[in-house]
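SAMPLE LOG
Freezer: B-3
Tube label: C17
Construct: single chain, 167 aa
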Amino acid sequence: MVGEALAVAEAGLAAGEQPIGAVVALGDDIIGRAYTQEKALGRRLVHADLLAMIEADEKVGFGRRPHPLRLAVTLEPCVMCLGAAMALGVREVYYALESPSDGGAEIAAGWRQSPDAPWFAAPVMVGGVRREESRELFRRYCAAAPDSPMRRWAATLIADPNPSVPG
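STRUCTURE (predicted):
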């Protein structure tokens, strides 16, 4: 699934967007796919994972689902997208690259489900799936994008996570 998200992210990069792609699966069927469209739409709440989940929600609505929903994204979902995944009933999230400044995996790990709302549960989060491929997309984005706050933020994602410490 993350491979599908990487392909969507590649399309987003080709369109001049950040290389964030997402897909939603119901069983073996992809029922939502999108890349972030902040530049094209001039809005902030158009994250890849949110757009893919909206597309999936339009297809499944409140109907019975024969399989749990799964989300794959090239970047760890932010807190907003984590909340949307919980509201939609996504049970598993697979992501490539960690997003230390706004990622929701830590929140999901500590989520305490309420017995009054059993449907509102944190998904299982699996990170690091094809991490280097996602990091390479962000390298290409940073090399081509003009200087901006978003490019500077993206540059933090490609920094060496284990820099050598001078001895």
